Amino acid sequence: MKAILLKWNRISLVKRILAGLVVGILLALIVPKASGIALLGTLFVSALKAVAPLLVLLLVMAAIANHQKGRQTNMKSILILYGISTFLAGATAVAFSYLFPVRLSLAGATEGLTPPGGIVEVLKGLLLNIVDNPVSALMNANYIGILAWALLLGFALKGAGDHTKSLLTQASDAVSQIVKWVIQLAPFGILGLVYESITASGLASLLSYGKLLLVLVGCMLFIGLVVNPLIVYMNLRRNPYPLVFTCLRESGITAFFTRSSAANIPVNMRLCEKLELNKDTYSVSIPLGATINMAGAAVTISVLTLAAVNTLGIQVDFGTALMLSVLSAISAAGASGVAGGSLLLIPLACSLFGISNDIAMQVVGVGFIIGVVQDSCETALNSSSDVLFTATADYAKQRRGEKLPLLNTASLD
């Protein structure tokens, strides 16, 4: 048994995940009523969600408490990259909607969902999350609140003794080790998630929304494979695709199936470590990115809003389209890092065109119907770009210092 485990661990994690994906599809087709298989996916996602808040709290606290003067982080550059990418995603989605207009068949309104009343409410929610009770923030996976408390406690502990700082570092290392153990179970988790997705939702229900899905997924692919690489190239002045494909492969695959940026934080932390990035930087930028770096959400908001606009025959001028790009980028930053978090922001964007809340909520309902594909692609784009831009800022800083490292991707196979 030990020999089998050693051989298993020698296989690349990505290859093991792909094997789990294939087995999950086969099992869904052969034994569609074996509900116990889906439990593997539920347990995997639950384990990631359980460990992520504690990991973020301890990593950020340790990084801030042990930070020495003279060591600079790249948070300003990363935040700029996050903002540029999210805005360009919204603008690209608007352009795609002009080129490939989609009209919807709207039915009954969605019940039991309460969208935010305006952009002020979204921003208010973010501010309230910052001052959330620390215990409540940990219990509810409120990463803005967790980050705020971790930063405050980290700064407060900068003057603590070496023994205290060492204990804090050891605690963060221990949780990081638990994360590594959980991630090793990813092939089984992906197997369960794929099985559940195919047996529960199927693909037949998506056929009537094929054009909408093509526009959404096509736009996200364009962002991930064209726009983001251009941003990376402008910063590194070298071929961006080795880094882009590494992030999509190592982070995007798991994010696609977990459908939660928050649950993918441990995966991204591990990837940043393998890329040998600055721990002081990525321990903050990754959880922050899971909250505010939402290019995929900006695409979803813009495309579905303009689908409603086209359905109602509303004319959109350039100025309004530009406003929608900005609004989708800002509101996307307020989308929660859980499955379907961006859909409830669609009524906010629809209000820009005077579309009633009843109709907007019908569009939200359409979003939930196609969510099995839309939200998976959205999360894969969001989460993988957290690592992509963190690595870009780190490598760009080293490039300016005339010591540009090789993009450390070969060791990941």
UniProtKB/TrEMBL annotation:
Compartment annotation: Cell membrane; Membrane
Membrane topology of this protein: Multi-pass membrane protein
Gene3D superfamilies for this protein: Sodium:dicarboxylate symporter
Record keywords, A-Z: Amino-acid transport, Cell membrane, Membrane, Symport, Transmembrane, Transmembrane helix, Transport
The organism's place on the tree of life at top rank: Bacteria
Ranges that cross the membrane: 12-31, 37-65, 77-100, 137-157, 178-200, 212-233, 284-309, 321-346
Similarity field: Belongs to the dicarboxylate/amino acid:cation symporter (DAACS) (TC 2.A.23) family.
Name under which the protein is recorded: Serine/threonine transporter SstT
Organism: Paenibacillus rhizolycopersici
Name of encoding gene: sstT
